[in-house]
């Protein structure tokens, strides 16, 4: 279980009788957040999350990058997936293909099995307090903000030969003139 349910897990343990770990946990009071969680935890209630159509990646296009896992002198270029949704919103993220080190004129790019490119996940934060929404697990209301995230594959470039230099370039581009954007990273995997 994730950390967000630690308090509910502790509450369920406190409902259990003392002196033994095998005592069944009594049912929490009906209508409480703990009862909602207990039903979900016992799989008596199924929770479905539907993804908004606007947040689906759409068609996958291709980008060409040079991987960090190869020596700087190695000129191999790899084909990687790039969602049309993310590509169409590059301007909104503050990043362009040059900052991502996408190869503009590929020579002999190939798709490599076992390779996952480094990714920058840029989040554009919504303004306002959000929409009051009940949790599907506990029923507790929270303010849901309509943030948008875009996953951008990136690689090694002439000015950014290392992963840390490329990350620094992207962080600068994302934060340039905007306090409503943030970025996180996933490293390259090359098996």
Write the layout of secondary structure elements.
Elements: H1 6-15, H2 33-41, E1 60-65, E2 78-83, H3 84-88, H4 90-93, E3 115-116, E4 118-124, E5 131-134, E6 141-144, E7 148-154, H5 163-175, E8 181-186, E9 189-190
Antiparallel strand pairs: 1-2, 3-9, 4-7, 4-8, 5-6
What does this structure look like?
It is elongated and about 70 Å long. A hairpin with a 6-residue loop joins β5 and β6. The strands form four sheets. Strands 7-4-8 form a three-stranded antiparallel beta sheet. It has two domains: 3-41, no CATH class; 53-190, no CATH class. The chain has five helices and nine strands. The protein has helices at 6-15, 33-41, 84-88, 90-93, 163-175, and strands at 60-65, 78-83, 115-116, 118-124, 131-134, 141-144, 148-154, 181-186, 189-190. Helix content is 21%, strand content 23%. It is an alpha+beta fold and 191 residues long. The two termini are 30 Å apart.
How many structural units, i.e. domains? 2
Distance between the termini: 30 Å
What is the share of helical residues?
A: 10-25%
Protein structure class: alpha+beta
Cα-based radius of gyration, to the nearest Å: 23 Å
The mean pLDDT is 88
Elements, N to C (H/E): HHEEHHEEEEEHEE
Shape label: elongated
Biggest sheet, spatial arrangement of strands: 7-4-8
> Total strand count, please?
9
